Amino acid sequence: MSTADLVHRAERIIGDAAFARLRQQRHTEPNAVRYALDARRHRPLVRGDGRLFIVAADHPARGALGVRQNGMAMADRYDLLERLALALSRPGVDGVLGTPDIIEDLALLGVLDDKIVVGSMNRGGLRGSVFEMDDRYTGYDVPSMVRSGVDAGKLLVRVNLEDAATVRTLEKTADAVTASAESGLPIMLEPFMSRWQDGKIVNDLTPDAVINSVAIAAGLGTSSAYTWLKLPVVDDMERVMAATTLPTLLLGGDADGSPDQTYASWQTALGLPGVHGLVVGRTLLYPQDGDVAQAVDIAAALVHGR
């Protein structure tokens, strides 16, 4: 049975009529996007136990549609939206991270009330392209996030010491951090030390490399008052977290790995000082057994202790 079959075996969160209405609004009522964003019920970024569990869905805008052996797993937008709506309906899920197209679809579908919305500024350096290290931002910018009522921003900052395009990424990231601080908008930086290897960009996930990326990212911009970090779970996470005082969320990791091992690594890292939650995408939206609700519930329990 396919993942999609398993997702839709239970009662659907979004029906055909809602999708038809979404298409109609996209076609004839573009102002409906603004109304939906303005009307959604907001919540504080940090509340209750202070932990955050965010579901990520900014992969399609990077041309990264594959999950495990299925290179087009995320190509069906309706299936992706159904999975996101299901995830957002589960207890303990605090919000969603996405590019404007995803966030606006979810707003029009009415599933963002009392949820944190993290706007992905995306990256121009598409995977596999000759310009992959030119990570100029191509999604949200700070003024548009403020206008849209987005609760926080997110960007990727890959540092390749052998590629001159990195300096543009650093400059644009510093500008975004400065603008966010001036606007009072929290911004999540996802840093990596990266390199070219056999014509591809590879991120260095050794503890020393992650620590180096943290040091570089934390110093970007004229103020770090609103800067958060979004870091991979690697070996020696205690030493990684000792490298920063900034609030940190953990990346979801590789969707190909063993779920039990993945959950165990999250649980250990979530107990470290300075770690305040998870940001996970394909690992939970497209779990190996197809049970999105169960995967999301396990992660929510790890974050919030339920």
- Per CATH, the class reads Alpha Beta
Poorly predicted spans: 1-9
Please bin the fraction of helical residues: 25-40%
Q: Which architecture does the CATH hierarchy give at level 2?
A: Alpha-Beta Barrel
What percent of residues are in strands? 15-25%
Number of folding domains? Answer: 1
CATH superfamily heading = Aldolase class I
Q: In this structure, how is the largest beta sheet organized?
A: 8 strands, parallel, barrel
Rounded mean pLDDT score: 92
**Global shape:** globular
Write the CATH fold name: TIM Barrel
Commentary on this structure:
With 306 residues, the protein is of the alpha/beta class. It has a single domain (3-304), classed as TIM Barrel (Alpha-Beta Barrel), CATH 3.20.20. 40% of the residues lie in helices and 17% in strands. It has twelve helices and nine strands. It has helices spanning 3-9, 16-28, 31-39, 77-89, 100-108, 142-148, 166-183, 207-218, 237-241, 259-270, 282-285, 292-304; strands at 52-56, 95-98, 116-120, 152-159, 187-197, 200-204, 227-231, 248-251, 275-280. The chain has an eight-stranded parallel β-barrel, surrounded by six helices. α3 crosses α5 and α10 runs parallel beside α12 (292-304). The model is unreliable at 1-9 (pLDDT under 50).
